Amino acid sequence: MVSVIIPCYNARQYICEALASAVAQEYVHEVILVDDCSTDDSVACVQAWLDVHAAQTADISIRVLQNAENSGVAVSRNRGVQEADGKYIAFLDADDRFAPGKLKKQVELLEQTGACLCNTARVLMTPYGSLTQTIMHTPEKITLAELEKTNVINCSSVVAPREILLKYPMQHSEVHEDYLTWLQMLRAYPYAVGIDEPLLEYRLSAHGKSRNKLKSARMTYRTYRLAGYPVWKSCRMFLSYMINGLKKYATH
Fold first, then answer.
1. According to DSSP H, which parts of 94-230 are helical?
2. Coil, strand, or helix at residue 83?
3. Are 200 and 120 in contact (CB under 8 A)?
4. Per-residue pLDDT of the chain (252 residues; tens, 9 = 90+)
5. Residue 218, helix vs strand vs coil
6. Which residues of 139-157 are buried (b: 16+ CB within 10 A; e: fewer)?
7. Is 51 exposed, middle or buried (0-12, 13-18, 19+ CB in 10 A)?
8. Cβ pair 14, 95 in contact under 8 A
9. CB 32 within 8 A of CB 57
10. Are 44 and 129 in contact (CB under 8 A)?
11. 8 A C-beta contact, residue 194 and residue 110
12. Helical spans, DSSP H, in the chain
C-alpha cells in the first residue's frame, strides 16, 4: 500500500539507517531512493547494503533513481511521487529513521478518517544517532487555521494519498517547500490528522535548513508569500510563527 520516497544528497553516513527503517515497516510496497547527484558514495553504500540484506528485502521493490542534475529536494520528492505506484506515499529524509510500527498506524488512521495527510510526533536524535528525551508533539487534528500559526507537520513523518500529492507537488526548494505544500493542501481539504507518538526519529544536523534560525525565519515569511497570502496576513502569520517558535525552544 505504501511507497516510501527517500531523497538523497551526500548522505552516505545515514542513508542505510533510513533504508533499513523503511523496509522494516509493515505495508511497504516499495522504496524509491532519489539521488540528487551526490558527490560521495551514497549510492554505492546503498547497493552494498542491499547485497547484504537481499533476503530481508526480497518482497519489497527497491529502486534507485538518479537525477540528471542537482535539482533540490522538492524536485527529488516529486519525481519519487510520480514514479511510485503505491496508494500512499511516505516521505523519509535520508538522515532520519522510522520507528517500528509507524506506517501501519498511519495507514490505518488514514483509512478510518479519509484525511488528506497523516503526520506523527518525533523524537530528536543526535547527529550520531542516539535518541534524546526531547519529543516534538503534534495535534491529532490539524486544520488550515492551526497550520497558519506554525508548521506542526514534519515532512519525514508524513503519509498521504499519492493522488493528492500528485495534485500538490512540492515547489521552491529555496524556502520551506513542504510547509508550502501543506498550506495548499489544507485549503482544499478540511483537515489532516496526527498521531502524537514519537514514531519518527529526527536527526539534528548543523546543516539543515531550520538550524540557522534567521535564515529559516526569512524562508518562512517567503513561504507565506508564495502560498498567496497578502502582506498583512503574512506578517500576522509570521508573528504567530515567531511566538510559537520562542515557546517551543523555551520548553525544549
1. 102-113, 144-149, 162-167, 177-188, 213-226
2. helix
3. yes
4. 999 999 999 999 999 999 999 999 999 999 999 999 999 999 999 999 999 988 888 899 999 999 999 999 999 999 999 999 999 999 999 999 999 999 999 999 999 999 999 999 999 999 999 999 999 999 999 999 999 999 999 999 999 999 999 999 999 989 999 999 999 999 999 999 999 999 999 999 755 555 567 888 999 999 999 999 999 999 999 999 888 877 765 555
5. helix
6. beebebeebbebbbbbbbb
7. exposed
8. yes
9. no
10. no
11. no
12. 15-23, 42-52, 73-83, 102-113, 144-149, 162-167, 177-188, 213-226, 231-250
Residue with grid cell 524536485, as numbered in its chain: 75
Q: For cell 506542526, what's the residue?
A: 152
Grid cell listed for 135: 519529543
pTM: 0.93
Per-residue cell: 68: 540528471
